[in-house]
Amino acid sequence: MANLLYDRLFAPHEGSARTFMILPDGKEITYAQFLAMAARFAHALRGAGVETGDRVAVQVRKSPEALAVYAACVQAGAIFLPLNTAYTATEVEYFVTDAEARLLLCDNAGADALGPVAVKAGAALMTLNADGSGSFAEAASSQAGEFAAVDRGADDLAAFLYTSGTTGRSKGAMLSHDNLLSNAEALVDYWRFTGEDVLLHALPIFHTHGLFVATNVILLAGGSMIFLPGLDVDALMKFMPRATTMMGVPTFYTRLLADDRLDRDAVSHMRLFVSGSAPLLAETHTQFEQRTCHRILERYGMTETNMNTSNPYDGERRAGTVGFPLPGVDLRIADPETGALLPTGKIGVIEVKGRNVFKGYWRMPEKTAAEFRTDGYFITGDLGFVDEDGYVTIVGRGKDLIISGGYNIYPKEVELVLDDLAGVAESAVIGVPHPDFGEGVVGVVVPLRGASLSEPVILGSIREKLARFKQPKRIFFAAELPRNTMGKVQKNVLRESYRDTFSS
Ligand code: MCA
Ligand code: AMP
User: Most buried among 185, 315, 327, 443, using CB within 10 Å?
Assistant: First the structure.
Protein backbone atom coordinates (compact mmCIF):
# COMPACT_ATOMS: atom_id res chain seq x y z
CA MET A 1 0.00 0.00 0.00
CA ALA A 2 1.30 3.50 -0.77
CA ASN A 3 -0.10 6.87 0.13
CA LEU A 4 2.26 9.56 -1.15
CA LEU A 5 1.55 12.31 1.36
CA TYR A 6 1.01 10.05 4.35
CA ASP A 7 4.15 8.04 3.64
CA ARG A 8 6.33 11.16 3.42
CA LEU A 9 4.82 13.50 6.00
CA PHE A 10 3.33 11.30 8.66
CA ALA A 11 4.43 7.64 8.51
CA PRO A 12 8.12 8.37 9.32
CA HIS A 13 7.00 9.68 12.74
CA GLU A 14 4.85 6.73 13.77
CA GLY A 15 5.76 5.76 17.33
CA SER A 16 8.13 8.72 17.70
CA ALA A 17 8.44 10.23 21.17
CA ARG A 18 9.73 13.50 19.72
CA THR A 19 7.72 16.62 20.42
CA PHE A 20 5.48 17.70 17.56
CA MET A 21 3.47 20.47 19.24
CA ILE A 22 3.98 22.76 22.20
CA LEU A 23 0.71 24.32 23.35
CA PRO A 24 0.18 27.74 24.98
CA ASP A 25 -0.05 26.16 28.46
CA GLY A 26 3.30 24.43 27.90
CA LYS A 27 1.76 20.97 27.34
CA GLU A 28 3.56 18.96 24.67
CA ILE A 29 2.17 16.50 22.15
CA THR A 30 4.53 13.92 20.70
CA TYR A 31 4.41 12.77 17.10
CA ALA A 32 3.22 9.35 18.31
CA GLN A 33 0.33 10.91 20.25
CA PHE A 34 -0.65 13.10 17.31
CA LEU A 35 -0.58 10.19 14.87
CA ALA A 36 -2.60 7.96 17.18
CA MET A 37 -5.22 10.71 17.39
CA ALA A 38 -5.20 11.05 13.58
CA ALA A 39 -5.67 7.29 13.20
CA ARG A 40 -8.64 7.32 15.60
CA PHE A 41 -10.09 10.20 13.59
CA ALA A 42 -9.59 8.27 10.35
CA HIS A 43 -11.69 5.43 11.83
CA ALA A 44 -14.29 8.00 12.92
CA LEU A 45 -14.42 9.36 9.37
CA ARG A 46 -15.18 5.89 8.08
CA GLY A 47 -17.80 5.51 10.82
CA ALA A 48 -19.45 8.72 9.58
CA GLY A 49 -19.69 7.24 6.08
CA VAL A 50 -16.68 9.03 4.57
CA GLU A 51 -15.17 6.95 1.78
CA THR A 52 -12.07 7.46 -0.34
CA GLY A 53 -12.45 10.62 -2.44
CA ASP A 54 -15.26 12.08 -0.29
CA ARG A 55 -15.00 15.70 0.84
CA VAL A 56 -14.81 16.56 4.53
CA ALA A 57 -15.65 20.21 5.24
CA VAL A 58 -14.19 21.52 8.48
CA GLN A 59 -15.03 24.81 10.19
CA VAL A 60 -13.47 24.49 13.62
CA ARG A 61 -11.18 26.62 15.75
CA LYS A 62 -7.45 25.97 15.67
CA SER A 63 -6.37 23.08 17.89
CA PRO A 64 -4.20 19.95 17.66
CA GLU A 65 -7.42 18.03 17.00
CA ALA A 66 -8.28 20.29 14.07
CA LEU A 67 -4.89 19.56 12.51
CA ALA A 68 -5.33 15.84 13.18
CA VAL A 69 -8.45 15.92 10.99
CA TYR A 70 -6.20 16.95 8.09
CA ALA A 71 -3.88 14.02 8.83
CA ALA A 72 -6.87 11.69 9.14
CA CYS A 73 -8.24 12.77 5.77
CA VAL A 74 -4.88 12.15 4.09
CA GLN A 75 -4.69 8.72 5.69
CA ALA A 76 -8.28 7.79 4.82
CA GLY A 77 -7.97 9.10 1.25
CA ALA A 78 -10.63 11.76 1.87
CA ILE A 79 -10.40 15.33 0.60
CA PHE A 80 -9.84 17.88 3.34
CA LEU A 81 -11.84 21.09 2.91
CA PRO A 82 -10.93 23.61 5.61
CA LEU A 83 -13.10 26.71 6.05
CA ASN A 84 -12.34 30.08 7.60
CA THR A 85 -13.93 30.24 11.06
CA ALA A 86 -15.17 33.74 10.20
CA TYR A 87 -17.46 32.50 7.41
CA THR A 88 -21.18 32.88 8.10
CA ALA A 89 -23.60 29.95 7.77
CA THR A 90 -24.70 31.32 4.38
CA GLU A 91 -21.12 31.28 3.13
CA VAL A 92 -20.49 27.78 4.51
CA GLU A 93 -23.65 26.53 2.80
CA TYR A 94 -22.21 27.39 -0.58
CA PHE A 95 -18.96 25.50 0.02
CA VAL A 96 -20.56 22.40 1.52
CA THR A 97 -23.17 22.24 -1.23
CA ASP A 98 -20.77 22.95 -4.09
CA ALA A 99 -18.24 20.38 -2.89
CA GLU A 100 -20.99 17.87 -2.03
CA ALA A 101 -19.26 17.26 1.26
CA ARG A 102 -20.08 13.97 2.95
CA LEU A 103 -19.32 15.34 6.41
CA LEU A 104 -19.32 18.81 7.94
CA LEU A 105 -17.37 19.27 11.15
CA CYS A 106 -18.01 22.36 13.25
CA ASP A 107 -17.76 23.33 16.89
CA ASN A 108 -20.66 23.39 19.34
CA ALA A 109 -21.10 27.14 18.91
CA GLY A 110 -21.68 26.73 15.17
CA ALA A 111 -23.85 23.61 15.31
CA ASP A 112 -27.24 25.35 15.59
CA ALA A 113 -26.68 27.53 12.55
CA LEU A 114 -24.99 24.81 10.51
CA GLY A 115 -27.47 22.00 11.29
CA PRO A 116 -29.95 23.11 8.59
CA VAL A 117 -27.04 23.78 6.20
CA ALA A 118 -25.82 20.19 6.55
CA VAL A 119 -29.35 18.81 6.07
CA LYS A 120 -29.86 20.89 2.93
CA ALA A 121 -26.49 19.86 1.51
CA GLY A 122 -26.98 16.19 2.38
CA ALA A 123 -23.90 16.13 4.64
CA ALA A 124 -23.58 14.54 8.07
CA LEU A 125 -22.88 17.07 10.84
CA MET A 126 -20.55 16.32 13.73
CA THR A 127 -18.80 18.54 16.26
CA LEU A 128 -15.20 19.01 17.26
CA ASN A 129 -14.38 21.71 19.79
CA ALA A 130 -11.08 23.46 20.41
CA ASP A 131 -10.81 21.68 23.79
CA GLY A 132 -10.94 18.32 22.01
CA SER A 133 -14.56 17.49 22.94
CA GLY A 134 -17.54 17.02 20.61
CA SER A 135 -19.45 14.22 18.91
CA PHE A 136 -16.66 13.51 16.41
CA ALA A 137 -14.06 13.23 19.19
CA GLU A 138 -16.42 10.95 21.12
CA ALA A 139 -16.92 8.70 18.12
CA ALA A 140 -13.14 8.50 17.74
CA SER A 141 -12.31 7.87 21.39
CA SER A 142 -12.97 4.13 21.34
CA GLN A 143 -11.20 3.56 18.01
CA ALA A 144 -7.79 1.99 17.41
CA GLY A 145 -4.71 4.21 17.32
CA GLU A 146 -3.59 2.71 14.01
CA PHE A 147 -5.20 2.95 10.60
CA ALA A 148 -3.91 1.40 7.37
CA ALA A 149 -3.41 4.38 5.05
CA VAL A 150 -5.44 4.12 1.86
CA ASP A 151 -3.56 3.87 -1.45
CA ARG A 152 -3.18 7.37 -2.95
CA GLY A 153 -0.89 8.42 -5.77
CA ALA A 154 0.68 11.66 -6.93
CA ASP A 155 -2.37 12.96 -8.81
CA ASP A 156 -4.98 11.95 -6.26
CA LEU A 157 -6.61 14.87 -4.50
CA ALA A 158 -5.74 15.71 -0.91
CA ALA A 159 -7.53 19.03 -0.37
CA PHE A 160 -9.97 21.56 -1.75
CA LEU A 161 -9.31 25.18 -0.83
CA TYR A 162 -11.96 27.63 -1.94
CA THR A 163 -10.80 30.86 -3.43
CA SER A 164 -13.08 33.67 -4.47
CA GLY A 165 -13.35 34.81 -8.04
CA THR A 166 -13.86 38.15 -9.74
CA THR A 167 -17.35 37.03 -10.66
CA GLY A 168 -18.18 36.55 -7.00
CA ARG A 169 -18.54 32.76 -7.13
CA SER A 170 -15.91 30.90 -5.12
CA LYS A 171 -13.97 28.16 -6.85
CA GLY A 172 -12.68 24.99 -5.22
CA ALA A 173 -8.97 24.70 -6.02
CA MET A 174 -8.17 20.97 -6.23
CA LEU A 175 -4.77 20.20 -4.70
CA SER A 176 -3.15 16.82 -5.19
CA HIS A 177 -0.79 14.81 -3.01
CA ASP A 178 2.07 15.73 -5.31
CA ASN A 179 1.17 19.46 -5.36
CA LEU A 180 1.53 19.57 -1.59
CA LEU A 181 4.48 17.23 -1.21
CA SER A 182 6.61 18.77 -3.95
CA ASN A 183 6.17 22.26 -2.46
CA ALA A 184 6.98 21.10 1.07
CA GLU A 185 10.13 19.40 -0.25
CA ALA A 186 11.23 22.53 -2.08
CA LEU A 187 10.66 24.74 0.99
CA VAL A 188 12.39 22.45 3.53
CA ASP A 189 15.41 22.50 1.29
CA TYR A 190 15.33 26.19 0.35
CA TRP A 191 14.73 27.43 3.89
CA ARG A 192 17.01 24.78 5.50
CA PHE A 193 14.47 23.26 7.84
CA THR A 194 15.68 20.36 10.01
CA GLY A 195 14.42 18.28 12.91
CA GLU A 196 15.96 20.86 15.25
CA ASP A 197 13.59 23.61 14.12
CA VAL A 198 10.85 24.92 16.36
CA LEU A 199 8.29 26.97 14.44
CA LEU A 200 6.28 29.71 16.10
CA HIS A 201 2.86 28.92 14.60
CA ALA A 202 0.26 31.67 15.12
CA LEU A 203 -1.42 31.57 11.69
CA PRO A 204 -4.84 30.07 11.06
CA ILE A 205 -4.81 26.50 9.71
CA PHE A 206 -7.59 26.89 7.14
CA HIS A 207 -5.41 28.54 4.46
CA THR A 208 -2.33 27.51 2.50
CA HIS A 209 0.08 29.57 4.61
CA GLY A 210 -0.62 28.16 8.08
CA LEU A 211 -1.77 24.73 6.91
CA PHE A 212 0.50 23.60 4.10
CA VAL A 213 3.48 25.92 4.16
CA ALA A 214 3.91 25.85 7.92
CA THR A 215 2.81 22.41 9.03
CA ASN A 216 3.86 20.37 6.00
CA VAL A 217 7.36 21.85 6.23
CA ILE A 218 7.61 20.97 9.94
CA LEU A 219 6.23 17.46 9.36
CA LEU A 220 8.64 16.79 6.52
CA ALA A 221 11.63 18.12 8.48
CA GLY A 222 10.55 16.36 11.69
CA GLY A 223 10.68 19.57 13.72
CA SER A 224 8.22 20.89 16.24
CA MET A 225 5.87 23.84 16.48
CA ILE A 226 4.62 26.14 19.19
CA PHE A 227 0.97 26.00 18.27
CA LEU A 228 -0.80 29.22 19.27
CA PRO A 229 -4.53 29.84 18.68
CA GLY A 230 -3.92 33.16 16.90
CA LEU A 231 -1.78 36.26 16.75
CA ASP A 232 -1.04 37.47 20.26
CA VAL A 233 2.13 39.54 20.53
CA ASP A 234 2.57 38.70 24.23
CA ALA A 235 2.56 34.99 23.40
CA LEU A 236 4.98 35.50 20.50
CA MET A 237 7.37 37.37 22.80
CA LYS A 238 7.01 34.72 25.49
CA PHE A 239 7.74 31.77 23.21
CA MET A 240 10.33 33.36 20.92
CA PRO A 241 13.25 32.27 23.13
CA ARG A 242 12.20 28.62 22.50
CA ALA A 243 11.62 29.02 18.76
CA THR A 244 13.95 29.07 15.78
CA THR A 245 11.58 30.22 13.03
CA MET A 246 8.31 32.08 12.47
CA MET A 247 5.99 32.44 9.49
CA GLY A 248 3.54 35.31 9.33
CA VAL A 249 1.63 37.76 7.20
CA PRO A 250 2.92 41.38 7.22
CA THR A 251 0.54 42.33 10.08
CA PHE A 252 2.57 39.97 12.32
CA TYR A 253 5.66 42.09 11.67
CA THR A 254 4.03 45.50 12.03
CA ARG A 255 2.45 44.42 15.33
CA LEU A 256 5.78 43.05 16.60
CA LEU A 257 7.47 46.31 15.63
CA ALA A 258 4.90 48.23 17.64
CA ASP A 259 6.06 46.39 20.75
CA ASP A 260 9.04 47.86 22.61
CA ARG A 261 10.20 44.45 23.75
CA LEU A 262 11.23 43.52 20.22
CA ASP A 263 15.01 43.81 20.07
CA ARG A 264 18.11 41.75 19.27
CA ASP A 265 18.00 39.89 22.56
CA ALA A 266 14.36 38.91 22.10
CA VAL A 267 15.11 37.18 18.78
CA SER A 268 18.54 35.78 19.65
CA HIS A 269 17.29 32.17 19.40
CA MET A 270 15.62 32.72 16.02
CA ARG A 271 17.25 31.84 12.69
CA LEU A 272 14.49 32.75 10.22
CA PHE A 273 11.45 35.03 9.86
CA VAL A 274 9.28 34.40 6.78
CA SER A 275 6.59 36.75 5.44
CA GLY A 276 4.00 36.20 2.75
CA SER A 277 0.33 36.25 1.65
CA ALA A 278 0.41 40.04 1.14
CA PRO A 279 3.05 42.61 0.22
CA LEU A 280 5.54 43.40 2.96
CA LEU A 281 6.33 47.11 2.90
CA ALA A 282 10.03 47.77 2.30
CA GLU A 283 9.76 50.08 5.32
CA THR A 284 8.68 47.18 7.56
CA HIS A 285 11.56 45.10 6.23
CA THR A 286 14.06 47.86 7.02
CA GLN A 287 12.66 48.66 10.47
CA PHE A 288 12.66 44.99 11.41
CA GLU A 289 16.30 44.66 10.40
CA GLN A 290 17.25 47.78 12.38
CA ARG A 291 15.58 46.45 15.51
CA THR A 292 16.55 42.78 15.29
CA CYS A 293 19.39 42.42 12.76
CA HIS A 294 17.17 39.89 10.95
CA ARG A 295 16.23 40.36 7.32
CA ILE A 296 12.70 39.02 6.88
CA LEU A 297 12.56 36.46 4.07
CA GLU A 298 9.64 37.31 1.80
CA ARG A 299 8.07 34.71 -0.45
CA TYR A 300 5.10 34.66 -2.83
CA GLY A 301 2.38 32.09 -3.30
CA MET A 302 -1.23 31.45 -4.12
CA THR A 303 -3.86 28.96 -3.06
CA GLU A 304 -3.80 27.46 -6.56
CA THR A 305 -0.04 27.16 -6.77
CA ASN A 306 1.30 26.86 -3.23
CA MET A 307 4.60 28.74 -3.05
CA ASN A 308 6.11 30.08 -6.28
CA THR A 309 9.05 32.26 -5.34
CA SER A 310 11.22 33.03 -2.37
CA ASN A 311 14.03 35.31 -1.42
CA PRO A 312 17.21 33.31 -0.86
CA TYR A 313 18.28 31.84 2.46
CA ASP A 314 21.94 32.74 2.03
CA GLY A 315 21.97 35.38 -0.67
CA GLU A 316 20.58 38.90 -0.52
CA ARG A 317 16.99 39.16 0.72
CA ARG A 318 15.86 42.14 -1.25
CA ALA A 319 13.16 44.30 0.33
CA GLY A 320 10.17 44.88 -1.94
CA THR A 321 10.86 41.75 -4.00
CA VAL A 322 9.61 38.18 -3.63
CA GLY A 323 12.91 36.63 -4.69
CA PHE A 324 13.51 33.86 -7.21
CA PRO A 325 11.30 31.09 -8.58
CA LEU A 326 11.63 28.08 -6.27
CA PRO A 327 13.41 25.01 -7.65
CA GLY A 328 10.91 23.12 -9.82
CA VAL A 329 8.82 26.22 -10.55
CA ASP A 330 8.99 27.79 -14.01
CA LEU A 331 7.98 31.43 -13.97
CA ARG A 332 7.56 33.88 -16.82
CA ILE A 333 6.09 37.30 -17.47
CA ALA A 334 3.56 37.70 -20.26
CA ASP A 335 1.44 40.39 -21.83
CA PRO A 336 -1.92 40.01 -20.05
CA GLU A 337 -3.89 40.55 -23.27
CA THR A 338 -1.91 38.67 -25.93
CA GLY A 339 0.07 36.21 -23.80
CA ALA A 340 3.26 37.23 -25.61
CA LEU A 341 6.34 36.74 -23.43
CA LEU A 342 7.94 39.92 -22.14
CA PRO A 343 11.65 40.61 -21.68
CA THR A 344 13.54 41.26 -18.44
CA GLY A 345 12.33 44.37 -16.63
CA LYS A 346 8.98 44.63 -18.42
CA ILE A 347 5.81 44.49 -16.34
CA GLY A 348 3.25 41.86 -17.23
CA VAL A 349 1.20 39.06 -15.72
CA ILE A 350 3.09 36.40 -13.75
CA GLU A 351 2.60 32.88 -15.10
CA VAL A 352 3.83 29.70 -13.41
CA LYS A 353 4.18 26.01 -14.16
CA GLY A 354 5.40 23.11 -12.05
CA ARG A 355 4.45 20.23 -9.76
CA ASN A 356 3.18 22.86 -7.31
CA VAL A 357 0.36 24.02 -9.60
CA PHE A 358 -3.13 22.72 -8.77
CA LYS A 359 -5.29 20.32 -10.79
CA GLY A 360 -8.02 22.82 -11.65
CA TYR A 361 -11.22 24.20 -10.16
CA TRP A 362 -13.76 21.64 -8.94
CA ARG A 363 -16.41 21.14 -11.61
CA MET A 364 -15.43 24.30 -13.48
CA PRO A 365 -13.62 23.11 -16.60
CA GLU A 366 -14.20 26.38 -18.47
CA LYS A 367 -12.88 28.52 -15.63
CA THR A 368 -9.90 26.21 -15.30
CA ALA A 369 -9.16 26.36 -19.02
CA ALA A 370 -9.43 30.15 -19.01
CA GLU A 371 -6.72 30.47 -16.40
CA PHE A 372 -4.16 28.23 -18.10
CA ARG A 373 -2.20 28.90 -21.30
CA THR A 374 -2.21 26.08 -23.83
CA ASP A 375 1.37 25.16 -22.86
CA GLY A 376 0.33 24.52 -19.25
CA TYR A 377 1.31 27.79 -17.56
CA PHE A 378 -1.14 29.06 -14.92
CA ILE A 379 -2.03 32.75 -15.20
CA THR A 380 -1.77 34.11 -11.65
CA GLY A 381 -3.41 37.49 -12.27
CA ASP A 382 -0.56 39.15 -10.35
CA LEU A 383 1.38 41.82 -12.19
CA GLY A 384 5.14 41.94 -11.88
CA PHE A 385 8.54 41.85 -13.50
CA VAL A 386 11.81 39.98 -13.24
CA ASP A 387 14.93 42.16 -12.90
CA GLU A 388 18.38 41.55 -14.36
CA ASP A 389 19.44 39.60 -11.28
CA GLY A 390 16.42 37.32 -11.54
CA TYR A 391 14.48 38.77 -8.59
CA VAL A 392 10.71 38.88 -9.06
CA THR A 393 8.84 42.01 -7.98
CA ILE A 394 5.04 42.16 -7.70
CA VAL A 395 3.77 45.59 -8.66
CA GLY A 396 0.03 45.07 -8.49
CA ARG A 397 -2.84 42.82 -9.36
CA GLY A 398 -4.64 42.43 -12.64
CA LYS A 399 -7.51 40.99 -10.60
CA ASP A 400 -9.77 43.24 -8.53
CA LEU A 401 -8.70 41.91 -5.16
CA ILE A 402 -8.17 43.41 -1.72
CA ILE A 403 -5.78 41.70 0.70
CA SER A 404 -6.50 42.69 4.28
CA GLY A 405 -4.33 41.21 7.02
CA GLY A 406 -3.51 38.33 4.64
CA TYR A 407 -7.15 37.52 3.87
CA ASN A 408 -8.44 37.94 0.33
CA ILE A 409 -11.58 39.92 -0.30
CA TYR A 410 -13.12 40.13 -3.75
CA PRO A 411 -14.88 43.52 -4.01
CA LYS A 412 -17.54 42.06 -6.31
CA GLU A 413 -18.77 39.72 -3.59
CA VAL A 414 -19.22 42.63 -1.15
CA GLU A 415 -20.74 44.91 -3.82
CA LEU A 416 -23.39 42.27 -4.61
CA VAL A 417 -24.42 42.21 -0.95
CA LEU A 418 -24.51 46.02 -0.71
CA ASP A 419 -26.42 46.40 -3.99
CA ASP A 420 -29.04 44.02 -2.67
CA LEU A 421 -29.94 46.29 0.26
CA ALA A 422 -33.11 48.37 0.13
CA GLY A 423 -32.37 51.96 -0.86
CA VAL A 424 -29.02 51.21 -2.53
CA ALA A 425 -28.70 52.11 -6.21
CA GLU A 426 -25.16 50.85 -6.62
CA SER A 427 -21.89 50.53 -4.77
CA ALA A 428 -18.15 50.20 -5.22
CA VAL A 429 -15.83 48.47 -2.78
CA ILE A 430 -12.16 49.38 -2.60
CA GLY A 431 -9.06 48.71 -0.52
CA VAL A 432 -7.14 51.67 0.89
CA PRO A 433 -3.99 51.80 3.05
CA HIS A 434 -4.56 50.52 6.59
CA PRO A 435 -1.84 50.74 9.24
CA ASP A 436 -2.57 47.31 10.73
CA PHE A 437 -4.05 45.22 7.92
CA GLY A 438 -2.11 46.69 4.97
CA GLU A 439 -5.36 47.35 3.14
CA GLY A 440 -8.71 48.19 4.74
CA VAL A 441 -12.07 47.70 3.04
CA VAL A 442 -14.17 50.78 2.24
CA GLY A 443 -17.63 50.77 0.65
CA VAL A 444 -18.88 53.70 -1.42
CA VAL A 445 -22.66 53.61 -1.72
CA VAL A 446 -24.95 55.54 -4.05
CA PRO A 447 -28.42 55.74 -2.44
CA LEU A 448 -31.60 55.54 -4.49
CA ARG A 449 -33.36 58.89 -4.80
CA GLY A 450 -35.24 59.62 -1.58
CA ALA A 451 -33.73 56.72 0.36
CA SER A 452 -32.48 57.50 3.81
CA LEU A 453 -29.45 55.38 4.54
CA SER A 454 -26.77 55.61 7.20
CA GLU A 455 -23.45 53.88 7.81
CA PRO A 456 -24.65 51.96 10.92
CA VAL A 457 -27.81 50.79 9.13
CA ILE A 458 -25.82 49.43 6.21
CA LEU A 459 -23.19 47.78 8.40
CA GLY A 460 -25.95 46.29 10.56
CA SER A 461 -27.74 44.83 7.54
CA ILE A 462 -24.72 42.99 6.15
CA ARG A 463 -23.54 41.57 9.50
CA GLU A 464 -25.04 38.10 8.98
CA LYS A 465 -24.31 37.95 5.27
CA LEU A 466 -20.55 38.29 5.04
CA ALA A 467 -17.61 37.16 7.13
CA ARG A 468 -16.52 39.98 9.42
CA PHE A 469 -13.14 40.53 7.74
CA LYS A 470 -14.91 41.13 4.38
CA GLN A 471 -17.26 43.77 5.77
CA PRO A 472 -16.27 47.36 4.96
CA LYS A 473 -14.72 49.06 7.97
CA ARG A 474 -16.22 52.34 6.69
CA ILE A 475 -19.16 53.21 4.42
CA PHE A 476 -19.28 56.51 2.54
CA PHE A 477 -22.12 57.91 0.45
CA ALA A 478 -21.78 59.52 -2.98
CA ALA A 479 -24.29 60.93 -5.45
CA GLU A 480 -22.65 58.94 -8.22
CA LEU A 481 -19.58 56.79 -8.91
CA PRO A 482 -16.76 58.11 -11.11
CA ARG A 483 -16.79 56.35 -14.48
CA ASN A 484 -14.57 56.36 -17.55
CA THR A 485 -15.85 56.90 -21.08
CA MET A 486 -16.62 53.19 -21.35
CA GLY A 487 -18.85 53.45 -18.30
CA LYS A 488 -16.49 51.46 -16.06
CA VAL A 489 -16.21 52.56 -12.43
CA GLN A 490 -12.82 54.22 -11.87
CA LYS A 491 -11.69 52.49 -8.71
CA ASN A 492 -8.32 54.25 -8.86
CA VAL A 493 -10.14 57.59 -8.50
CA LEU A 494 -12.08 56.26 -5.50
CA ARG A 495 -8.93 54.82 -3.94
CA GLU A 496 -7.34 58.25 -4.22
CA SER A 497 -10.37 60.04 -2.74
CA TYR A 498 -10.56 57.74 0.29
CA ARG A 499 -6.86 56.93 0.72
CA ASP A 500 -6.57 58.69 4.11
CA THR A 501 -9.58 56.96 5.66
CA PHE A 502 -7.48 54.93 8.09
CA SER A 503 -4.50 57.25 8.48
CA SER A 504 -3.92 57.99 12.09
C1 MCA B 1 -9.54 40.23 11.83
N2 MCA B 1 -10.28 41.28 11.45
C3 MCA B 1 -9.92 41.65 10.24
C4 MCA B 1 -8.90 40.75 9.87
N5 MCA B 1 -8.69 39.89 10.88
N6 MCA B 1 -10.34 42.63 9.43
C7 MCA B 1 -9.78 42.75 8.24
N8 MCA B 1 -8.80 41.92 7.80
C9 MCA B 1 -8.35 40.93 8.60
N10 MCA B 1 -7.39 40.09 8.18
C11 MCA B 1 -11.30 42.02 12.21
C12 MCA B 1 -12.18 41.17 13.06
O13 MCA B 1 -13.33 40.82 12.38
C14 MCA B 1 -12.46 42.10 14.22
O15 MCA B 1 -13.43 43.04 13.84
C16 MCA B 1 -11.18 42.83 14.40
O17 MCA B 1 -10.57 42.84 13.11
C18 MCA B 1 -10.24 42.18 15.38
O19 MCA B 1 -10.30 40.81 15.21
P20 MCA B 1 -9.24 39.81 15.85
O21 MCA B 1 -9.77 38.44 15.73
O22 MCA B 1 -8.83 40.27 17.20
O23 MCA B 1 -8.04 39.98 14.88
P24 MCA B 1 -6.67 39.33 15.03
O25 MCA B 1 -6.75 38.04 15.78
O26 MCA B 1 -5.73 40.32 15.55
O27 MCA B 1 -6.37 38.91 13.53
C28 MCA B 1 -5.66 39.68 12.63
C29 MCA B 1 -4.71 38.74 11.87
C30 MCA B 1 -5.55 37.64 11.21
C31 MCA B 1 -3.71 38.13 12.81
C32 MCA B 1 -3.98 39.59 10.85
O33 MCA B 1 -6.46 38.23 10.30
C34 MCA B 1 -4.71 36.60 10.54
O35 MCA B 1 -4.27 35.66 11.19
N36 MCA B 1 -4.48 36.73 9.25
C37 MCA B 1 -3.70 35.77 8.50
C38 MCA B 1 -4.48 35.32 7.33
C39 MCA B 1 -3.75 34.20 6.57
O40 MCA B 1 -3.33 33.21 7.14
N41 MCA B 1 -3.63 34.35 5.26
C42 MCA B 1 -2.97 33.40 4.43
C43 MCA B 1 -3.87 33.05 3.28
P44 MCA B 1 -14.45 43.67 14.86
O45 MCA B 1 -13.68 44.09 16.05
O46 MCA B 1 -15.05 44.79 14.10
O47 MCA B 1 -15.41 42.56 15.14
S48 MCA B 1 -2.99 31.91 2.18
C49 MCA B 1 -2.40 32.96 1.01
O50 MCA B 1 -2.71 34.10 0.99
C51 MCA B 1 -1.36 32.54 0.00
C52 MCA B 1 -1.40 31.15 -0.46
C53 MCA B 1 0.01 32.83 0.56
O54 MCA B 1 0.83 33.36 -0.21
O55 MCA B 1 0.24 32.55 1.73
P1 AMP C 1 -4.82 33.50 -2.10
O2 AMP C 1 -5.65 33.49 -3.30
O3 AMP C 1 -5.53 33.71 -0.81
O4 AMP C 1 -4.02 32.32 -2.09
O5 AMP C 1 -3.86 34.76 -2.23
C6 AMP C 1 -2.87 34.77 -3.20
C7 AMP C 1 -2.52 36.15 -3.56
O8 AMP C 1 -1.84 36.79 -2.47
C9 AMP C 1 -1.52 36.21 -4.69
O10 AMP C 1 -2.14 36.05 -5.94
C11 AMP C 1 -0.90 37.58 -4.50
O12 AMP C 1 -1.73 38.58 -5.05
C13 AMP C 1 -0.91 37.71 -2.97
N14 AMP C 1 0.42 37.46 -2.37
C15 AMP C 1 0.89 36.35 -1.78
N16 AMP C 1 2.15 36.53 -1.33
C17 AMP C 1 2.49 37.82 -1.65
C18 AMP C 1 3.63 38.62 -1.46
N19 AMP C 1 4.70 38.19 -0.82
N20 AMP C 1 3.61 39.88 -1.96
C21 AMP C 1 2.53 40.36 -2.60
N22 AMP C 1 1.41 39.65 -2.81
C23 AMP C 1 1.38 38.40 -2.33
Answer: 443
Ligand 1 pocket residue status of 209, Cβ below 6 Å:
yes
Q: Which of 357, 414, 469, 501 gets mutated to test ligand 1 (max ligand atoms within 8 A of its CB)?
A: 469
Consecutive 10-residue averages of pLDDT for the chain (504 residues): 94 98 97 98 98 98 98 98 96 96 97 97 97 97 97 98 76 98 98 98 98 98 98 98 98 98 98 98 97 98 98 97 98 96 97 98 95 96 97 91 95 94 97 96 97 96 94 97 93 96 88
- Nearest CA to 202 among 232, 176, 239? 232
- Please state, in angstroms and rounded to a whole number, the distance separating the CA atoms of residues 99 and 117: 13
Contact 406 CB / ligand 1 (< 6 Å): yes
Q: Strands, DSSP E only, in 366-494?
A: 378-386, 392-397, 402-404, 407-409, 424-434, 438-447, 474-477
Q: CB-based burial of residue 16 (10 Å sphere; 0-12 exposed, 13-18 middle, 19+ buried)?
A: middle
pTM above 0.85, yes or no: yes
Ligand 2 center to residue 25 CA distance, Å?
33
Q: Residue 399: CB within 6 Å of ligand 2? A: no
Q: Is the CB of 382 under 6 A from ligand 2?
A: yes
CA atoms of 386 and 319, how far apart (whole Å):
14
